[in-house]
Specification:
about 0% strand
Length: about 150
């Protein structure tokens, strides 16, 4: 699968301009993952409707976290991976299957952490020991209205 190329000037830690490279690629100069330098930004809510929608998303996320055995960062990590999936697929409102989400989760984590050991410790600190935990987090967000699911999920 080819990822959408970066369309603006982003400098790698080594100084190389990453413009034009795919988000899931590596810097040709030093080999660092491009994703480490990319920051996802949400545009500011400017209309009253957008501000109400954003506040509703926050409310749903707070509801999902409340009473959950997982830390808030675990929910935010899942949302980051979903955002990563949308950016890679280059389609708004894309549906990600459970299997594809797990693939993207592993890819995202491997780009975020330099070693498997660090990734495992980080995930354990969030209470994530396996794909079942990720599924529980996702369905908790579905139950509270933060995410949507299809009948086959």
């Amino acid at each position: 699968m080819s990822a959408k190329p970066i369309s603006n000037d982003i400098k790698c830690a080594c100084g190389y301009n990453l413009r034009g490279l795919p988000i899931n690629g590596n810097c040709p100069e030093c080999g660092s993952p491009v994703l480490r330098r990319v920051r996802f930004k949400m545009p500011p809510a400017t209309t009253p409707e957008a501000m109400r929608a954003r506040e509703e998303q926050r409310r749903c996320l707070r509801a999902a976290i409340t009473g959950s055995p997982y830390r808030a960062e675990a929910f935010l990590l899942v949302l980051d991976v979903l955002q990563y999936a949308v950016r890679l697929e280059d389609q708004p409102g894309v549906h990600v299957t459970g299997h594809r989400f797990c693939e993207l989760f592993c890819e995202y984590i491997s780009k975020k952490f330099p070693t498997e050991t660090r990734a495992i410790y980080y995930l354990a600190s969030l209470g994530i020991d396996g794909s079942e935990d990720i599924g529980r987090i996702i369905f908790r967000m579905v139950e509270t209205g933060r995410l949507n699911a299809t009948a086959t999920d």
